[in-house]
Amino acid sequence: MGAFFFRNKMADNQNQTLEEVQTFEGKYPKQIWSLFFSEMWERFCFYGMRGMLVFFMISQLNFQEKEANLQYGATQAFVYAFTFVGGLFADKILGFRKSLFWGGLLMILGSVFLSIGPHEYFFFGLSFIIIGTGFFKPNISTMVGELYKDGDSRRDAGFSLFYAGINLGAFLGGYICVAIGKGYILGSVIDEAHRWNVAFGLAAIGMLISLINFYFTKRHLGPIGLQPGHPDAIVKTRALPKWVEYAVYLGTLLLIPLIQLMVSKTEYTDYFMYTIGPLTLIYLFYEMSKVEKVERNKLWAVLVFILFSIIFWGIYEQSGGSLSIFAAKNLNDSILGGLVHLDPNGVNNSGGALFIIALAPLFGIMWIWMARRRFEPNTIIKFGLGFIFLGLGYYVLFGTKFFAVDGIASLDIFSIALLVITVGELCLSPIGLSIMTKLSPARLQGIMMGMWFLASAYGQYVAGLIGANMAEARAGSSLVEQLITYTDSYKQLGHYSVIAGIVLIAISPLVKKLMHGVN
């Protein structure tokens, strides 16, 4: 009898209509908590890998600092560029659910290869993670957006909560993985020869937990994320032959050697980035030609957000490149006035995520409170504020040199800079995820979410070039000279960020007009 009730309850959940899913009481739909958990563990895997990249390349693979920065930028650029490809395949062939699951499997395989032989299989394992993230990342974000009806003022709060899940995974993976690799955690338990194997292996375990959780989550999503052609899918299309789906899986695997080559040779990144952006814009213009004028104007507004986000991420993503080297060489390991000693690379990787965990729910509540009183700033103003706080954070990074002794700066001041930068990120990134779903037509949701992450790819690419220029300028210099070069560069980045924020706020009336009432 119990089994019969359980099966029928599952069937009821699977047969929910979109209207039933989107009709909920309170601040958040119940499904968002399960998606929060899946995203958290996927981000544990991804940010664990990301946080280890530059340090591992310099300390274990003997890369020069300039080369490591370029390699970091190339790897991250390919990761985010493939989110566009993943969004395209999800929209047209796989659906969000199957795309997410396939991406997760690839990420597990990549992390397993890295755990078996981090030195021997470094680029091979990264290739799996790059493509896997492309299939996973944009599609879970799109499913969060579809939990809400058009015009629901709670959507931004939902994305802020979801963003907290991203950063809980980033906090845990970002600190634990690199700290294990460096011996800050379990150094007396894990012998030095196997620390990096364990660190990369933890990323695989995190991704496995994410997929298991999603397997049990999808039954509560109603029609959200179903494959195109499914009779209950939100957007009605003709079902494709099954071989098309299998061709995507096979083609993905056949791409692995090519991706490995392109990632290991950074000069190929230039060719790729010079090509993928223009081709993507051409495809978007083609899709824009097929929609009504109002939808087309909304997509023009999306392009404004995307172009400014490239600038934002180019500055912000020094965290994985130049700031990783800065943390390893120019920061002490004491925080709270020496009461606690932490790995500075771990703090750099996870400090911002910790602040987001603390602040994201408060920001979500604040947006709802302001919306009810009709003085919530519109999305363009939020973007502009994000840039201004980002710039202020880089001014604090510049200020670390005034608290340095013999070229070693304070981890406390560095952490304050991360806090200010985090406020900027909370104004921009979760709202960016939300606006992509608000302004995009239903049949282009995955593609436009992919374009949002493609903009991040260009930001990562620019970040690598900036970090490489810093490393080149300070080759062979003393710790004091390195500190001055880095902090002066951060001051310049602060200038650029504040100027971009002011420009964005100045053009906000024009962009608001293009958005046709979407806030």
From TrEMBL:
<keyword id="KW-1133">Transmembrane helix</keyword>
<dbReference type="GO" id="GO:0006857">
    <property type="term" value="P:oligopeptide transport"/>
</dbReference>
<protein>
    <submittedName>
        <fullName>POT family proton-dependent oligopeptide transporter</fullName>
    </submittedName>
</protein>
<feature type="transmembrane region" description="Helical">
    <location>
        <begin position="246"/>
        <end position="263"/>
    </location>
</feature>
<dbReference type="Pfam" id="PF00854">
    <property type="entry name" value="PTR2"/>
</dbReference>
<feature type="transmembrane region" description="Helical">
    <location>
        <begin position="44"/>
        <end position="63"/>
    </location>
</feature>
<keyword id="KW-0472">Membrane</keyword>
<keyword id="KW-0813">Transport</keyword>
<feature type="transmembrane region" description="Helical">
    <location>
        <begin position="198"/>
        <end position="216"/>
    </location>
</feature>
<feature type="transmembrane region" description="Helical">
    <location>
        <begin position="269"/>
        <end position="286"/>
    </location>
</feature>
<feature type="transmembrane region" description="Helical">
    <location>
        <begin position="493"/>
        <end position="511"/>
    </location>
</feature>
<feature type="transmembrane region" description="Helical">
    <location>
        <begin position="161"/>
        <end position="186"/>
    </location>
</feature>
<dbReference type="InterPro" id="IPR000109">
    <property type="entry name" value="POT_fam"/>
</dbReference>
<feature type="transmembrane region" description="Helical">
    <location>
        <begin position="352"/>
        <end position="371"/>
    </location>
</feature>
<feature type="transmembrane region" description="Helical">
    <location>
        <begin position="298"/>
        <end position="316"/>
    </location>
</feature>
<dbReference type="InterPro" id="IPR036259">
    <property type="entry name" value="MFS_trans_sf"/>
</dbReference>
<feature type="transmembrane region" description="Helical">
    <location>
        <begin position="69"/>
        <end position="90"/>
    </location>
</feature>
<feature type="transmembrane region" description="Helical">
    <location>
        <begin position="99"/>
        <end position="116"/>
    </location>
</feature>
<keyword id="KW-1003">Cell membrane</keyword>
<dbReference type="InterPro" id="IPR005279">
    <property type="entry name" value="Dipep/tripep_permease"/>
</dbReference>
<feature type="transmembrane region" description="Helical">
    <location>
        <begin position="122"/>
        <end position="140"/>
    </location>
</feature>
<feature type="transmembrane region" description="Helical">
    <location>
        <begin position="383"/>
        <end position="404"/>
    </location>
</feature>
<comment type="similarity">
    <text>Belongs to the major facilitator superfamily. Proton-dependent oligopeptide transporter (POT/PTR) (TC 2.A.17) family.</text>
</comment>
<keyword id="KW-0812">Transmembrane</keyword>
<dbReference type="InterPro" id="IPR018456">
    <property type="entry name" value="PTR2_symporter_CS"/>
</dbReference>
<feature type="transmembrane region" description="Helical">
    <location>
        <begin position="447"/>
        <end position="468"/>
    </location>
</feature>
<feature type="transmembrane region" description="Helical">
    <location>
        <begin position="416"/>
        <end position="435"/>
    </location>
</feature>
<keyword id="KW-0571">Peptide transport</keyword>
<keyword id="KW-0653">Protein transport</keyword>
<dbReference type="GO" id="GO:0005886">
    <property type="term" value="C:plasma membrane"/>
</dbReference>
<dbReference type="InterPro" id="IPR050171">
    <property type="entry name" value="MFS_Transporters"/>
</dbReference>
<dbReference type="GO" id="GO:1904680">
    <property type="term" value="F:peptide transmembrane transporter activity"/>
</dbReference>
